């Protein structure tokens, strides 16, 4: 079997392939790779650019206000694991991740990267009543690079998202607000009907809130 170029493995897939039909390799807490970090914070052994070059196409990004800054710079989004920064020597900015994503996609236009974005650190809550987090994310980080993103709330085929990042939204927005169709929402049911009307149960059911949930899992 010939060796596959992991930087452009999606070039082997036809344009009409639905993203939901692809087993996308991904990483958990993708930005938590720094060796010098708080205990139990580090989850990955390689930085974002190496992950992408190794074939990763799903990034799990957790963000917070930059509580290490003051004034307007508090809204410079930083990468966190829970309430902890992913590195101890200063904050790791979300902009750094985006720069590496854009650079990779410019060099490998056949690829697409699904980016799951969630805000964490409950000590610094965002005002969900006015879509504060969505507003900062779009106006400060995504809006001026809109051509580099697939921002619809519909699951696309590769034809429409090659060379782009796909936003998977793991944060709430106002039901009738302007950001309602801003990215693919992640709050789906665990069980879903598929094309031939069979019933399937998604494999990553992980919420064990009581002892009785163990058997259900």
UniProtKB/TrEMBL annotation:
<dbReference type="InterPro" id="IPR051057">
    <property type="entry name" value="PI-PLC_domain"/>
</dbReference>
<feature type="domain" description="Phosphatidylinositol-specific phospholipase C X">
    <location>
        <begin position="15"/>
        <end position="170"/>
    </location>
</feature>
<dbReference type="GO" id="GO:0008081">
    <property type="term" value="F:phosphoric diester hydrolase activity"/>
</dbReference>
<dbReference type="Pfam" id="PF00388">
    <property type="entry name" value="PI-PLC-X"/>
</dbReference>
<protein>
    <recommendedName>
        <fullName>Phosphatidylinositol-specific phospholipase C X domain-containing protein</fullName>
    </recommendedName>
</protein>
<dbReference type="InterPro" id="IPR000909">
    <property type="entry name" value="PLipase_C_PInositol-sp_X_dom"/>
</dbReference>
<dbReference type="InterPro" id="IPR017946">
    <property type="entry name" value="PLC-like_Pdiesterase_TIM-brl"/>
</dbReference>
<dbReference type="GO" id="GO:0006629">
    <property type="term" value="P:lipid metabolic process"/>
</dbReference>
